[in-house]
Amino acid sequence: MSHMGYRCLMAVDREQVLRSAAALLTRKSTATMDEVARAAGISRATLHRHFAGRDALVRALESLGIAECEAALATARTDEGPAAEAVRRLVREMEPSAGLLAFLYTENQLFEGEEQNEGWARIDAALTELFRRGQESGEFRIDLTPVWLTEALYGLLASGAWAVAEGRVARNDFTHMIVELLLGGALRREEP
Amino acid sequence: MSHMGYRCLMAVDREQVLRSAAALLTRKSTATMDEVARAAGISRATLHRHFAGRDALVRALESLGIAECEAALATARTDEGPAAEAVRRLVREMEPSAGLLAFLYTENQLFEGEEQNEGWARIDAALTELFRRGQESGEFRIDLTPVWLTEALYGLLASGAWAVAEGRVARNDFTHMIVELLLGGALRREEP
DNA sequence: CCGGTGTGAGACAAGAATGTCTCATATGGG
DNA sequence: CCCATATGAGACATTCTTGTCTCACACCGG
User: Fold this and answer.
1) Most buried pick, A19, A140, A160, B78, via CB within 10 A?
2) What CATH number does the domain containing B132 carry?
3) What pLDDT, in 10s, does the model give residues B27-73?
């Protein structure tokens, strides 16, 4: 009975399990617990030891997503420097979480129980504030609302994650593709 | 025994059922057939008379999505005029289908059976060709691949559909928000 | 060497979802 | 008016999924 626990032998990498679960559930949201376990390379029994059930699994996914988003926001220091650069730093920090976020973003059923969305509210607020700050400083156009820009960022992150996962976009281009499209759009700029 | 069939009395509006099913399944992808039926305002028995099962329902959703995309592509005449204007026309034509497309785009499990994806292949090809044409004409920048722009268009359509459905973006702004972000990006343009 | 710990495989029952059926009812056309 | 058609409600068996349990085994530390 180690009073610290968890730090023993060949324990399942909880985060790895969550990541593969997110990858699978994004692609096939009706996947069975057995399929999730297989995808993670563990048995259903072990999966069930770590996550009491499907609900608990999704909750854990949400918690992880929130934690990683807040960590990305903190690391990117979105309240410092030019907003455009802050967006670039933020997307770079969010890249490893993109697959997880794609699942959480598309699985709006999470918001039904409305237990945990206070975390998302904080994150949404931080993102919206970033875009608002960019508008105020004159960097961003004002005909696209900060709320929509936030929404679009989520959508592009999901698109990017899927495009990379299916080999349609090179992994190394992830940040560039998303940031350049979000900030600059598809149109060619006039030469300065 | 009407040899023409289908044009009888208070028959369920098949397309209406499919649309409400897409709206529900997008929000809660694990919804029951019973929930789908309720959402469509019909009984489970009737739903099952029209769609043999969940698979058949999803197939029908996919068929409808493909048909509407191809119709939108045809109406928008994406091979005519400036590419930017073509994109604008296309998004406008796709707006009514955005909810359905959001479901189909995020439900990548469809591609497992790979029966029907030839329709998507044609649509993807048309979209990619549109962006490629815009690059060739000098309208679009060339550091964002046509494949990525296609992917981003899908993602933004989905984001837009959800944002409108949840009241975060005004319905009337749908086309403008998507087209302006996709083409122009968030950065302010220099005055010409 | 041996005990503790985490895991995989499988059995098992309880529950949920599905697919199919019947019957009653309402509607509109002939 | 009557009949054909479409629907709603519900019963029902089947299948799938889940949650729990047991047992055997591998690994690591002492």
Assistant:
1) A160
2) 1.10.357.10
3) 899 999 999 999 999 999 999 999 999 999 999 999 999 999 999 99
